[in-house]
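Consider the following input, taken from an annotated entry for Fe-S cluster assembly ATPase SufC (Nitrosomonas supralitoralis).
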Amino acid sequence: MIVKNSRTLLLVQGLRASINGTEILKGIDLTVKSGEIHAIMGLNGSGKSTLAKVLAGHSAYEITGGSVRFEDKDLLELAPEDRARAGLFLAFQYPIEIPGVANTQFLRLAYNTIQAQRGKEELDPLEFDDFVRKKMKLLDMNPDFLDRSVNEGFSGGEKKRNEILQMALLEPKLSILDEMDSGLDIDALKTVANGVNQITNKDNATILVTHYQRLLDYVVPDFVHIMQSGSIVMTGGKELALELETRGYDWITANKRPVAGAIA
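Applying the prediction step yields:
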């Protein structure tokens, strides 16, 4: 959904990043505006998940060049928790388990922290219980998951639903969903995608990191970016993902410069 008079949420210019002395990101340029959905596609090792982690502030990566603006803020100067408070959300490819911490406690603490940052009223346990149960209906989640430890014993699909539940509660300005479709069967994928679509609006934006076009059948992107060897080598509309599904990644190698749209 490309919105007229939308504002720039994320501006990435010449971003370079390394880990253990090995350069992974080699000059990323990316602009994301409110109301937009961007898909970043590429093979394993192309750098797409690294980009997601760097934007979220993962401490393992060293920024060696470039800049990132998130609205009026220098994102690279912010600690990970401050990036989250500012409205950036990362849904993990492999959500971790937190034994001994009830899901409802974790979710309420996260929600109230964001509410306080925005100068809004926090919810007590009873108020939050009613609120979160309504959000869980978006994802067809059993309320019993509220009383279980965070992600402990959850299936892959249940973990992904729990990530999108966090997104629904926190209402971030920019959501980065790293391999959201990984490990999901088609029914679970449809449910999670439906949740994402209901959360998406003209005031926020979403970046989908994925290998496969199938996710994009359900969450339709405005822009598709193909990453290869740490760079965005091609950008186009949703048709580019369909072309990629038909031809695979090998055909991209012959096209060295970024182009707009799919190649016929």
